[in-house]
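Components:
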Amino acid sequence: MAPKYVKNAVGRMIPEKINGKPVIPFMGVHKYITDGKRYAPPLPSSANYPKDGNKQVKDLKTALKEAGIKDGMTISTHHHFRNGDLIANQIFQAASEMGLKDLIWFPSASFPCHEPIVEYLKDGTIHHIEGSMNGPLGRFASQGNMRGAGVLRSHGGRYQAVQDGEVVIDIAVIAAPTADPFGNANGLTGESACGLLGFALADSQYAHKVIVVTDNLVPFPCIPWQIQGNYVDYVVEVDQIGIPERIISGTTRITRSPDRLYIAELTAKFCDEVGIIKEGFSFQAGAGGTSLAIGNYFGEIMREKGIKGRFARGGSNQYLVDMLEEGLIDYILDGQTFDLAGVQSMRENPHHVNTSPFTSYNYHGKGNFAGIVDVVILGATEVDVNFNANVVTHSDGLLLHGIGGWQNCLFSKTVILPIPLFRDRIPIIRDEVTTVCGPGELIDVIVTERGIAINPRRKDLLEKTAKSKLPIMTIEELKAEGERICGVPEPVKLGDKVIAAIKWVDGTVIDVVYQVIE
Amino acid sequence: MTQIGSAGNQGPGIRSDCFAALKMKKSGGIKIVLKSKVDALYKNSIRDLAQQILDFYKVEHAELEIIDRGAIELVLAARIEAAVKKCIKSEDEFLLDMIPENQTSTSKDHRRRSRLYLPGNSPKLMLNAGIHQPDAVILDLEDSVAPEKKAEARLMVRNALRGLNFYGTERMVRINQLPAGLEDLEYVVPHHVNLILLPKCEKADQVRTVDEKITQVLTDSSLEYPVYIMPIIESALGVVNAYQIASASDRVAALAIGLEDYTADLGAQRTREGRESFYARNQLVNAAKAAGVQAIDSVFSDVADMDALREVVLEAKSLGFDGMGCIHPRQINVIHETFAPTDAQIEKAKKIVLAFDEASEKGLGVVSLGSKMIDPPVVIRAQNTITIALETGLIQENWKENDHE
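Structure:
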């Protein structure tokens, strides 16, 4: 029977059911208000846990068995080790050896190092993934090879889905750079230090069973405890949980590309001209090469004008730490650390504070930090003439990126997307984006090397730049310029099969991704 | 002519470019094999373009393989044409439309503080060159192009001159040393090039030869627009003949010096202090100014060291040079900032321009400032200073109002 589709508030057709479960189509920003109660995991009794607090079991497989792993369960992991994670693959290798079927993997993000997961999708161990699918996994899913549809959520949306019980985590496996036998854990020390463990917070609190895996077991107490052992069922010691040089990304350097530097400089000039860079302001710029350059230009402007910012949101790295230490900002509120300087600063500097998706982004919180940030700098693969943006698929339809905190950050006071007008020959500004990840009403400014487009909703920004020498254009003009250089792209024919759902921050479905035909 | 011809670039790291290989056949019609990074969005238009070019050259039986890494149309067209021309002999040129932005002319005294070198066979670097707003771009056919790539680079440069928007910067081409450079002219002069750089120029005759060839190509194509020449002096003999070279033709707009080759010719090491080329640079500036043309300094090759670049530019400016070459877009701003007038110069220029305005209002023939008479060339220089200061944002459009207050 053909699935029924309904049109959502951004005009996308959404099937009534995904993975056999009914879904709620996106209704508009802040339109979906839920009531009811937070989901709660089973109530534990400390009588059932070792009196001496030693929860160690001999290996991961034993822990999974004792946790009662069985067919169809949802297993969660986190991505603080980025492309250096060694644990997720081991979980599903063990599950495959045990002959388990139809598991659901619920990572906070996946990376190219998770390519071996493809085998477990093929052999039936894993039914589908609810989380980002990067690189090889995205390609596998895009080709229609995954049995269930993927479900992509933002970092905040992941917390929301756990809190309202849409995703019930049967077993959470938390890889921790340091832990004690009770299960207290942190990311600050050890060979695999990654700074913090914020993405595993919801998992620790809401999963039915929690396994902490570490390669740096210390005697009780593990201080500080970013993950509280009181939530933890089992502790496993292994030789190695991650590859340090891949945990700490070596790519987070300021771009040397003159074109990207130009876009970064233009972005900073824009922010300066419209008065965003002012005493006490706050920003979030991410860790890509262009974003780093923008942070650097912000720093130059702040130094020149004697301006001090109140806080910057991380991902942190050397550059942001330098700004903190120079006194250009009072605090770093950090969701993840990208290099050792970030880890060290978080360990030693009380003004470098770890955050979680709960504090920063969660829809079911009594507010969150995202809206407090004055300006956020984000990327996109495509933007349409209504400022709707795509961050997960490429123009050829391939699903290759996760959402991360991108959707959540759209609630900042000003959202700027600095992007090249075209990549190779592919124009970035389209009549319609391949996949809507963020509604245009939340996206304010597109900065390209050939001009800046301001969302007509932001009359204030348009007025402030009315007499500016900055290359302000309409988004239609920018689109025309891109197509003049690249040619008008041909329409891409995609298959009918829905291979993934894109959730909005409130749990509704903003768009779906279709199979590619190759 | 061979039966197999290829052009373009391929391999890891190649972007915004393509590789085209044509195999001529006796029968079987046309077969186009396309492997494109942007297949989903452009496969039909790429195939159509390829077919159009093969039809244009009346190729009826052949296999054309295109390995495309996101090349735009004018790049694809240049590569396919080059591949075809390795297989068949043809004088015909497959020309895409010329954009109106590239049909502009410049003047002999056009501002030439910075000119950005772009390797003539590397389209990736050309695409965004204009956004960095150097005073000029140089599409280079000489040293940055390997000998076996010269033919295809000509087509690449020609197509770029016609179709790539350089956003108002002056469009220059560095041709090869003569005599090969004369053939280059046929590929660039009809396509609204603004200025020709003549490398390794040693004698006035070479300039005259280039001048005549430019005139001939323009006449043959019934075209009429200025095409200037910038001889590059790169040898001891060239330095000696600098004045004759600078004054050899009306087309000469500037004299440039190339210090790598010059120091090699001297048998000296090129040093950062540049004492070995001090004479040559002075001589070149003097010769250029004697002939009434601009003097342009060499390039600075350490693209990471902006402080050293600033020093070099400051020295060039103090010697009387009007501009410098650059090999990386990041150098442009430093060069512009350093060539810009100082605050003291601007203040002085403001006073002179205001005095001139006042004299004109009163109908006075003589401009004076306090007790001093101001000569006309001083007024012109002051006006130029103000123009540059305005363009570089050092003063506001309404500076006169504010200054009167």
